[in-house]
Design a protein that fits this description.
Radius of gyration: 20 Å
CATH class of the largest domain: Alpha Beta
Number of domains: 2
Structural class: alpha/beta
Strand content: 15-25%
Helix content: 25-40%
Number of helices: 11
CATH topology of the largest domain: D-Maltodextrin-Binding Protein, domain 2
Order of helices and strands: EEHEHEHEEEHEHEHEEHEHHHH
Length: 348
C-alpha cells in the first residue's frame, strides 16, 4: 500500500493498532522491493507505513532529517556518515540495486574519447561526487584502466544544500579538482555546450535534487564509454567476481536498539520479496523461452539468483567499496563491516 508523504514525526516506533510495531519505510521502486511496496510481503511483528521515492530525494531527506524509521540508503553515504561519527543509523544488509557502473559513463562523441584511458585530462560531470555510482565508476576506472580521480577535472551538479555531501561533511579529496556547477546551469547543458567531455552518470528529468533535463541518452552526439555494455559487464564480472552494490538500507538506531528483533524480521521480509520477484521474473522469461524468443539455456542462467541480501553473502563486494571509499579520500580510514551493520545480521 502506498501512503502520502510523511513528516519527521511519522510512525517513530509506535505500537500499531494491530499489535505490531508501526514503522515508516521509504523505498525506491525496483523489482525486488516491489512485492513489499505492493503489500504482497510483510515483516513479522511490523506494520509498515510505506512511501515510494526517487533515490535522489530519499537519501537527501534521510541523511538530513532522519525522517524515516527504515529507509533505502546510498552505500557510499552510509560509509561516509559512519566514518564521521554519525550514529543515527544502523545498516541493514538489504541491497536493492546493483549495476556495472562503468557502463553508465556517458561521453561526448567529439571529445576524443575512444577508450577509458582517454578520460585523462578531460572535464567530467557528476551529479554528486560522493554518490555510490560515481564511487564505483572511479574505482573501476583506476583499478581496471589506470585512470585515477586526479587525472580528471570534475564538475558537480548538486549544491551543498541539496547534496548528500551536505549532510556527510563532504569536501573534495586532496589533489582532486571538483568544481560546483552554478544553479542556473547543469550537466546536460554543459555537455551540449561542449563545456564538458563526459559524465560519470547522467540523471535527467529534473528531480527535487537533480537539475538536468536534456535527453542525452538518445542524442546522436553522445554515447556510452563502452559501446558494448554487455561485453564489458561480462568481462568485469568474470575477472573480479564483483557485481557492484548501489543501495543498501538503514534503520534508525533508537529502534534497532530498543527492538533488536526488528533487524532480522526486516531482513527476512526483504529476502522473501526478492525470492518472489525472482520467481516472477523467471516465469516471465519462460514465456519467452516457450515462444522461441529466448534460448532454452537462459532458463538455467535466470534460475541462479545474482542478487542476495546479507553481509556474509556480499562480503567481498562490501569490502571492495569500503576500500575504494578510503582510497578516494571519502572516508579517513577503511571501515570494517562490523562498524556498519547490525551484529545480528553479520553471519547472514
Amino acid at each position: 500500500m502506498r501512503m502520502p508523504q510523511l513528516g519527521p514525526d511519522a510512525a517513530s516506533g509506535r505500537q500499531g493498532t494491530g499489535g505490531g510495531l508501526n514503522l515508516s519505510v521509504a523505498l525506491t521502486p525496483n523489482l525486488r522491493t516491489r512485492p513489499i511496496l505492493d503489500g504482497f510481503v510483510g515483516a513479522e511483528g511490523i506494520e509498515m507505513t510505506l512511501l515510494e521515492l526517487h533515490p535522489s530525494e530519499l537519501f537527501w531527506r534521510q541523511l538530513k532529517f532522519a525522517e524515516f524509521d527504515v529507509a533505502e540508503m546510498s552505500v557510499s553515504s552510509l560509509l561516509m556518515a559512519t566514518a564521521r561519527g554519525d550514529d543515527r543509523f544502523v545498516g541493514l544488509p538489504v541491497f536493492t540495486t546493483r549495476f556495472f557502473f562503468q557502463n553508465w559513463i556517458l561521453i561526448r562523441k567529439t571529445a576524443g574519447i575512444e577508450r577509458p584511458q582517454d578520460l585523462k585530462g578531460k572535464r567530467v560531470g557528476v551529479p554528486e561526487y560522493q554518490q555510490t555510482a560515481a564511487l564505483w565508476s572511479r574505482g573501476i576506472l583506476e583499478h581496471e584502466f589506470g585512470v585515477t580521480p586526479r587525472d580528471m577535472e570534475f564538475w558537480m551538479e548538486r549544491t551543498p544544500e541539496s547534496s548528500h555531501g551536505g549532510s556527510t561533511g563532504f569536501k573534495p579529496p586532496e589533489g582532486v579538482t571538483v568544481h560546483g556547477i552554478p544553479e542556473d546551469n547543469n550537466i546536460g547543458k554543459m555537455l551540449l555546450a561542449e563545456d564538458l567531455d563526459a559524465t560519470l552518470l547522467y540523471i535527467p528529468g529534473g528531480t527535487m535534487i537533480d537539475r538536468s533535463t536534456a535527453d542525452l541518452h538518445n542524442h546522436p552526439d553522445f554515447g556510452p564509454l563502452f559501446p558494448d555494455p554487455y561485453a564489458e559487464g561480462k568481462r568485469y564480472f568474470e575477472k573480479t567476481g564483483l557485481y557492484p552494490i548501489n543501495h543498501g538500507m538503514v534503520v534508525r538506531r533508537e529502534i534497532a536498539e530498543k527492538h533488536p528483533w526488528v533487524m532480522l524480521s526486516l531482513l527476512k521480509a526483504f529476502d522473501e520479496a526478492a525470492q518472489l520477484a525472482d520467481r516472477q521474473r523467471l516465469e516471465h522469461a519462460r514465456y519467452h523461452i516457450d515462444a522461441g524468443l529466448l534460448p532454452s539455456e537462459a532458463d538455467d542462467a535466470l534460475a541462479t539468483p545474482l542478487v542476495r541480501h546479507g553481509v556474509a553473502a556480499n562480503r567481498k563486494v562490501l569490502e571492495t567499496i569500503a576500500a575504494y571509499s578510503h582510497e578516494q579520500g571519502l572516508t579517513p580510514r577503511r571501515l570494517e563491516l562490523e562498524e556498519i551493520f547490525a551484529a545480528s545480521t553479520l553471519d547472514r
